[in-house]
Amino acid sequence: MLNKYPLWKYLIIITVLIVSTLYALPNLYGEDPAVQVSATRSVQVNQSTLAKVEAVLGEAGVKPKSIVLDERGILARFNNTEDQLKAQDLLFDTLDTAYVVALNLAPSTPSWLRDMGAMPMYLGLDLRGGVHFLMEVDMQAAVQQAMNRYRDDFRSVLRDEKVRYLGIKHEGSVAEGNAYIRLKFRDAEQRDEARKVLNKEFPEVDYRNEEEGDAAYLLASLPKKEIDEIQKFALQQNITTLRNRVNELGVAEPLIQQQGVDRIVVQLPGVQDTARAKEILGATATLEFRMVDEENSVATAMRGRVPAGSTLYRERNGDPILLQNDVMLTGDYIVDSSSGIDTQNGGPQVSISLDSKGGRIFTNATKDNVGKLMAVVFIETKVDRRMIDGQMTRVKRKHEEVINVARIRERLGSRFQITGLDSPEEARDLSLLLRAGALAAPIDIVEERTVGPSLGQDNIDKGFASVVIGFVLVLAFMLFYYKGFGLIANLALGLNLVVIVAVLSMMQATLTLPGIAGIVLTVGMAVDANVLIFERIREELREGSPVQKAIDLGYGKAFVTILDANITTLIAAVVLFAMGSGPIKGFAITLSVGILTSMFTAIMVSRGIVNLAYGGRKIKKLSI
Amino acid sequence: MKLFKEIPNIDFMSKSKIAMAISLLLLLAGLISLGVRGLNLGIDFTGGTLIEVGYQESADLDVVRGALTDAGFGDAVVQHFGTSKDVLVRIAPRENTSSAQLSTQLLHVMEGTSDKTVEMRRVEFVGPQIGDELMEKGGLAMLTALACILIYVWLRFEKRFSLGAIAALVHDVILTLGIFSIFQLEFDLTVLAALLAVIGYSLNDTIVVFDRVRENFRIMRKGTPTDVVNNSINQTLSRTVVTSLTTVLVLVALFFFGGELIHGFATALLVGIVVGTYSSIYIASAAALMLGVSKEDLMPPEKEGENMDDITQP
Fold first, then answer.
1. Predicted ipTM?
2. Exposed, middle or buried, A480 (CB in 10 Å: 0-12/13-18/19+)?
3. A575, A577, A623: which to substitute to probe chain B, counting the most B Cβ within 10 Å?
4. Predicted local distance difference test score (pLDDT) of residue B179
C-alpha cells in the first residue's frame, strides 16, 4: 500500500527522538559557579582535605550548594559567583600551596542524566572566555644546544682518552641544516685515533675525514634521524614543563597539545589575566642535587636551631629534611631522563643522563659520598597576585621542594639510575620533573587569542538569539507557504535542531561562535530538502496524479536530487574541517552534522509524519 | 501559497548572452579591484595585534589615539566596535618586540585612558608566520574543495556539467571577493569559512538544476538542449527561490542579531547566496550548454534501447 511505513521505521524515528531529547537535555540545565580543588604532584585530595574545605567554608559562613569528592578532586558548587569568589580566596589562603584552587563552571546536569553519560556541549573559548596560546619551540636553538653539548663532550672525551687535538669549532649553520663540528689534528694518525674513540662513545654522529696541507680534520655532523630525535625531545620536554606550570595557574580544564612538529597549543578556559599566565608559563624551573645532612638532627632544626651549612627543606609528603647548602650539581647538565623498570629487582626506576661536563662534576662529587643520602631539590619561581595595600601586586615566590632522596651506591658518572621508588607513577612523575628542570629549547608565543568573560556571554546570547530568530522566521515562512505540509516540515526542522544539539553533545565537540553560525545556516538549508519534496508533490498534483501517488512520487524523485546536493555541500564542509583551524573547525563540524541529520529528519521523519497523517486513506486534497 | 500558479515559462537561455556579459563585466570589476586595492585582510592573515576593550561610558577615540601615540603606538588603528563604548585597536606586527609583551603593554595603555575600569573583552595576537600559513591553508582549502567537487560532479553527471558547475563556483567566489575588495570589508578567517560555505550552497543550487536537466534529457523526446535547460530551470525555479529565501531569512537574523564578530561571515554568505542563486541559473547551465551538452551525453549506457515512456508513465 502506498504511503505506509513499516513499524520498524516508526520505531527508529521514535528511538532517535527519545535518545536525542535525552542527550540534548543537559544543555538546558545551565551551569553552577564552582570551585575545584585538585592536587598537584606532592599532595593528595582525600576525605581529610574534604573535611578541611568544608570546615573552612563553614567557619566563614559560605554555604556551598553541594560539595563532592571524586577522582578529579573536590568540586564545590555555589549558588552565586559572589560565594564562589569568596570561597576561592578562603581556600587559596588556608590550603597548602600544593593544591590547585580553580574557578570553574560545573554543568548542573541532574545525576540521572550524568549516569547515562549525557553532558552539555563543550563551549569553545570564544563562548566561555579564556586564553588560547599557540607556542612555537625554537627548534634551531634546540639543535644548536645539542651541537654545543657534543662539542663539550668531544673535548672531554678526547682529553680523558689522552688524544691530542689542535682545535674544535662549529661550522656551517643550523638554519640551513649543514652545521657540523670541525676538529683539527696534527696528523692523520691522531685523527684516526680520535675518530675511533669518538665513534665508540657517540655512534649516533656521522664522521667525515678531510685533509688540508699538513693538518688532518675530522668533521662531525648530526644525521637527520638524530636531529628529528632532538626536536621531538625538545617538544616533549616543553609540553611537560608547560603542563606542570599550568597546574600553578589554577585552571579547571586546561588543554595542552602538540600541533604539527614544532608547536604547542595551550588553552586555558576562564583565565583572564593573560599577563600572569604568560609569566607563569615562561617561568624557569631548576634542579639541584644536594647531600642530606645526616649528622645533625632534624628535630633540633625543627625547633629553630638549624646548623650552619645546612637548610631545612620539606619532602613531597611534607616531612622535614635537612640538606647541606653545597650544591653538587644543577639541572642544567641533565640531557635526558626517562622512567623504566630496574632490571635487577623489577622495581620502578628513573634513568638520568648528564652531559659530559656534568658527568665529570658528578663523579667528583659522589666519589667521597658513597653510602650516603643524596636529595634532588626542585626549584620554581612562581608569580602570585596578592592584594597588598588595596592594590594587586605581583609577588615572586621561590618554591622549593625535595622530590627525591636516594642512597648513593657507587661513584656516579654521566649515566645513572634512581631506584627504590614506590610506584611506576612516581617514577614517571620524577622523570618528568627532572626533565622540566633541564635546559629546554626556548619557546615563543606565535598566536594569542583571549576572550573576556563578558564577551563570551555576549557571544552566547547573540548566537542563541540569532538561532531562535532565524528558526522562527523559517517556521513562519514554511507554515505560510506550505500550510499543512509546512507544519510537517517544521516538526522535522525542530527535531533536526534537537538531533544536532544531541549529536554535538555526544561527540563533546567544541561549540564556537562560527559553530553557532553553522547551526543557523543548517536551519536555513535543512528546509531545502522539504522544499524540493513539496515542490515535486505540487508538480505531480498539477499533472493530475492522484494524491497518494503524488506524495510517493514527490518523495521518490526528490531523493536523488537531495542526496547529490547534500553530498557536494558535505564535501565542502569536510575540506573545511580538514584544513581549517580552531573556530573554523567548529563551523565545519556543525555544518557537517547538520547536513547529515537534516537528511534524516527532512526525508525520513517528515515522510513518517506524512504517512501517519495521510497514508492509506482516500484524500481528495492536500494541504500543500 | 504558491509563487507561481503554473510552472513558469521564462526563456532564460535567450538572455544568457546578456547575463554572461553582465557577469563578465562584474567579474572584471571584481578582479580589477582585487588587483588594485586588494582585500582588506584582517589580522588573521596579516599578523598583528588586536585588542577590544569595553569602557563604561562612550569612549572618545581621540583620547585613546593620543594615549597610544604617546606610548609609541602611533601606527595603531583605533575604531568603535559595535557600540560607542567598545573600542577596537589594531597594530601591525613589529620587529624586536616580543609578541607576548605587546598585547600586555597595549592593555596597560588602554587602562590608563579612563578613570573607571576598562574591561578587556578580547585580545588577539597572530604572528606573521601564522598569518601567512592561514592564508596559504585557506587558498589550499578552497582549491581542494573545488577539485573534489569537480571530480564528484564529473562522476555523477558529465564533464560539461562539471565544468559548468566549477565555472559558476569560480564566478561566485570572485564576485564575493570582489564585493569585499570594492567595499574594503574586512576579510578574516570567518569570511573565508563563509566563502567555502558559499561554494557548498551555490553548488547545491546548481546540482538541483542539473539533476532536472539530466532527468528531462531522458524523458523529453523532442526539444533542443536549450529547450530542455530552459524547462528544467523553470521547473525548479520556485524551489530555487523558496530555498534562497529561507536561507536569506536566517542570514538576516544572523546579520542583525549575531553580533559584530559574525558580521563579515553573514555578509559574505548573503552576497554569496544572491550571486550563487543567479549563477546556478545563468552561469552553470549556460556554460554547460555552450560546451555543447547533449542528450546523448546523459544517457545511461546500460539503459540504452529502453522505452523512455516507461520511465515517465509507470
1. 0.85
2. exposed
3. A575
4. 95
